[in-house]
């Protein structure tokens, strides 16, 4: 592959396909599998599906949120285990639950700038094989002892270790600055926006039914490769009902003044899994006879001040989307598909409630008025994290791949119409939010460059 | 072009072999007890021993791989976590069935004390986790050797009635002279010759160091079930004349296969000849070379240059 001189104006980057392994329950089908095992499996499936054996790709970018320190080069090491040309570079990226989407944005920007022709964006997480660290006290003793030149100094280092130091440090998902779990944070936001239990359960029900239906109609056949005996997502409950979801006890927000509404059914469980998305320039795709599923139009990352309580922890995508749509001159009405990552069912609802609130949009988003409302039939049409599970860094790749495919299906069904447009919105720890717009590629379009 | 390994020239058990179907894969622990008893009985002076191999193949049908077992194997050997079974894992699956043949009372050689001198295996079509595997094993070609008697222990794994994997393990019973005839050549000499050939040929080469900890024998014993005392601890190895525990030969060969990795392709031949055992803990310096045909040759040596193993990994295009 030769690299042409960097074009003076950006060209386009396209989503060409994706692959993931079914997502597993914590301690489930992938209890023994490492992040590297799962990411390699996702990449292997992508390589096999798109005939990339021996190809030198421009770059592979991805990451894991819960990562062992020995996995510092996780993506490169995973790539070396695949049939790709070993000369394919890679790097690790981490932005909490937005890792996968940020990886897609990163590589598509490189493609747009002409720096690379092709790329894979991916992500993986294992809560079953999460890193467990030693306490700071024991770590200091071990490092001091390792540097010591004689036995007495070595022994002295351990003399400072207290019994409490021997307890391992398990990874925590609490926000470091507030000590509150993500669920407790979102419970505050949920109450603030007056989101009901019934509305949240309805989102969860739709997620399970939509994902189950997508498997039934074969939509997931070329997006998911079975792994370790798992054929579908282990969390998926096609037969769940409003009654079953309604019987679950609340788990978050029990200490608030409001009636708690967030249950294990309308909150995403911890899970294991990996995903990968293939992106490329139009020329690269044409040379391999790969159809262009969707164009990566634009993206925006936002952050909010949740530490001082000014904004909810998971509300950053509300801001990111407002800025993104304004920059693109689009409204919510211009969107044909909307993907709002279901960290919790209530995130889907608080996000839309904020966009529909005239006062909030004026004061917080700096807009002339409410951003508007979205037809619920356009939201998470093939199910989302409540049904699939949410292996943190793998979620972005899952959403981008299935949204790009859905856009291509809409385009194929109405060749004269389009382009069809999708919004992807992902909230993340640290008060971060990432949004991106994808667009279908009309078949009548000439040279997309 | 490289010569085809025996795993590609053998086609099933010899004519006249009777197939005995076992209800399940036999436990290796019990087989070793029987093997040790058989080995001890063979030492009794005046005991008459058979001088031919039993014309029997053992078969276990519908074997399913446990995902946790596969993952443990892959993590230990440095294989990727693929659902496709590495050839070395197929060997592990077939090993108890083959051992069951070698502890039969009509098997003429003592199980303990036999030396694994060479191995050849072919993945003829990819074998996957979830496939129902029919495992068949038999012994053949008992032959005289300068230092004793050699034979081949053969195993096949079939999926849906088609042979997908075949392995040939060559063993030497040292000091046991059962059969007359022309003596076969010594494997060790060809190991050394192969290794020096590669280095002078100027092909693309790579170097890898294996630092093997003292517990490698126990770790491979756990995933393979091969808990031969010579691999388990220095003490138990001393009882068999080794100064320390020695690494399983197949562990080292499977490490080499994992080092070649994805470049072996989905179907491939893999051979090894074993020379000096690797004492644990220990270090092995391994070199890999490949030519235009994509075939890999590897050789592992001690830091003083003594050969431990050498072999090939040949992708089947």
From TrEMBL, chain A:
Residues 292-439 form the Thiolase C-terminal domain. It holds the Pfam family Thiolase_C. This is Acetyl-CoA C-acetyltransferase. InterPro entries: 3-ketoacyl-CoA_Thiolase, Thiolase, Thiolase-like, Thiolase_AS, Thiolase_C, Thiolase_N. One of its GO terms (molecular function) is acetyl-CoA C-acetyltransferase activity. Its EC number is 2.3.1.9. Residues 14-282 form the Thiolase N-terminal domain. Belongs to the thiolase-like superfamily. Thiolase family. It comes from the Bacteria. It comes from Flavimobilis rhizosphaerae. The lineage of its organism: Bacteria, Bacillati, Actinomycetota, Actinomycetes, Micrococcales. SUPFAM superfamilies: Thiolase-like (SSF53901). Keywords: Acyltransferase, Transferase. The keyword Transferase applies.
Automatic annotation (TrEMBL), chain B:
InterPro entries: Fatty_acid_synthase (IPR003965), HotDog_dom_sf (IPR029069), MaoC-like_dom (IPR002539). It comes from the Bacteria. Residues 218-289 form the MaoC-like domain. It holds the Pfam family MaoC_dehydratas. Residues 1-20 are annotated as: Disordered. Belongs to the enoyl-CoA hydratase/isomerase family. This is MaoC-like domain-containing protein. It comes from Flavimobilis rhizosphaerae.
